[in-house]
Target: NADH dehydrogenase
Amino acid sequence: MTIVEIGLPKRLVEMTLDGESVRVPEGATILDACTAKGKSIPTLCYGDTLKPANACRVCMVEVEGSRTLVPSCSRKVEPGMVVHTDSERTQHSRKLVLELLGSATDLSTTPHVDEWMSACGADPSRFGPEAETKLQPTIVDNPLYVRDYGKCIMCYKCVDACGDQWQNSFAISVAGRGFDSRISTEFSTPLPDSACVYCGNCIEVCPTGALSFKREHDKREDGTWDESAQTQTTTVCTFCGVGCNLTLHVQDNEIVKVTSPHESTVTHGNLCIKGRFGWQHVQNR
Model:
C-alpha cells in the first residue's frame, strides 16, 4: 500500500486507484490523487489556479458504483472509492472526446494533444472534412495579444480568469447559445474599447493557444517560433514594490513572452499589464 501526501492533511482517506491502495488527504480530488501518484490524466479545461469548470470532459475516469464516468478534476475522493483511469470505458470516452474536439477545432498549438490522441487511437478525420469548424479570422486589434477563436474549445478558463476568480474586469464572457456559443467582449466591441485591462491572465490559462502573445503569434506565422531553443529565467518584476515573480522566455537573445509561476504566493500565475507586457523596451537596443 502506498501513502501519498498532498499538503498537510488533517485526515487521510483510503481509496483504490487502478488496483493499488492509496491514501490521500480529505478533500483531495481524483486528479490530485492521480497526479501525486505519477499517473498522467489528460486535462484541458482544468487549471491549477482556477475552480474546475468540468467543460472539456477529457479527464473522465470510471468509479465503481457510478452509473456514468466522472470528471477527475472535480470529483472528491471518498473512503473506499475504487477508481479506474485506463479502463476500456474511459479510453473509449477519451478517444471520442478528442476526436470531436479535433474535428471541430484547430488543436495544432495545444500541448500534449498529439500524444493523447496517439495513446487512445483517436482519429478526428473519421468525421469527415465537413465536420471542421468554419474558419474564423484571427483578431489582431491591439499590439499586445492575438485572439484566434478557431482554436477555442469553450473551456471558460479565460472567462473565469477575467471574472470573479481573479481579475474582476469581466471584459470577456460567453455570447450566444448552443452551437453559436463563443467567447466575446461586451457587444462584440474591439478589445481596446472593452473593459480589458490587458493583464494577460486569460493568455496564461488558455490551453489551446486561442489567446497568445502578439510576438509568439508573429513568430509562429513566419516559422521561427522554437520552444526547444528557449530558455526560462524567473526574476522579480521591478515596476512596483509588490514583488511579483516573472518568468522570462528568451529565444535568440530576445524576450518572446512573460509568464509567472503558479506556485508563487504573490502572483499565483497572475500579472498586470506592466509585468506581462512591459518588456518591449528591453529589445530596443
In short: The mean pLDDT is 89.
